[in-house]
Design a protein that fits this description.
Structural class: alpha+beta
CATH architecture of one domain: 3-Layer(aba) Sandwich
Strand content: 5-15%
Number of strands: 4
Order of helices and strands: EHEEEHHHHHHH
Helix content: 40-55%
CATH superfamily of one domain: Glutaredoxin
Number of helices: 8
Distance between the termini: 34 Å
Length: 229
């Protein structure tokens, strides 16, 4: 069966950077499922699969189309129950919902402010125009003003990781002894920053850094297949 994952990329099509795409890439690898990547720019997304989605990742699994990284994980868990679990039961799925909310409400906004110009500069011109217009409308200010505010986020980002830091004192992964989808959620956010921005958000010797390095090594080093900015 052919699987295709549509992944958000900039000018360099070999460097997909979306945090949500990275969640799905690791989820597919976790399940041991082969897949091909089709890189797309922001402005190409509405034309994918005859207008099937407004967001990526979008997974085509044979005749099935699934969008949204969490929905894809749930689909994979149900479609391939004999393969390694992404949730380890309903409790794990509920925990992943909480982790996703924390990541998207706490980590993602800070990363956007820190890396917004880095993201813009890595896009094709047509996508740069879309990105600038849409993000300036969202923030109510210029990209440059958002980036200026992001300087403060660099100083406070480490503190935002304290809940993760606390949990990792007791176990090597959020999932326990082995990673689960919850790990891929947070990894996706930090991998996004690693790929698009030269700013280093993790300090040497931090338990979060050690966890992130373990995640980079998972599935034959899938996370390291794209180098840091």
């Amino acid at each position: 069966m052919t699987r295709t994952l549509y992944a958000l990329s900039g000018t360099d099509k070999a460097r997909p950077f979306s945090p949500h795409v990275w969640k799905t890439k690791l989820s597919l690898a976790h399940k041991g499922l082969a897949f091909d990547i089709t890189p797309v720019g922001f402005t190409e997304i509405p034309r994918l699969e005859q207008g099937a989605t407004r967001i990526v990742p979008l997974l085509r699994d044979g005749g099935k189309l699934v969008s949204d990284s969490f929905d894809i994980a749930v689909y994979l868990e149900g479609a391939y129950p004999e393969r390694p679990t992404l949730f380890a039961g309903e409790g794990g799925k509920a925990m992943a919902r909480f982790v996703e909310g924390w990541s998207q409400m706490t980590l993602h906004p800070a990363i956007v402010r820190i890396a917004i110009m880095d993201i813009h500069d890595r896009l094709d011109p047509v996508d740069q125009a879309y990105f600038r217009t849409s993000r300036e409308e969202r923030f109510g200010k210029s990209l440059e003003a958002v980036a200026e505010a992001g300087r403060a986020d660099l100083e406070t980002f480490s503190a935002k990781l304290e809940p993760l830091r606390h949990m990792l004192k007791f176990q090597p992964f959020l999932g326990g002894d082995r990673p689960l989808f919850s790990d891929y959620i947070v990894f996706g956010a930090l991998q996004w920053a690693r790929i698009v921005s030269p700013h280093r958000l993790l300090a040497e010797g931090d338990v979060v850094t050690d966890w992130f390095e373990r995640c980079l090594d998972l599935h034959d080093g899938l996370g390291r297949s794209v180098t840091a900015a």
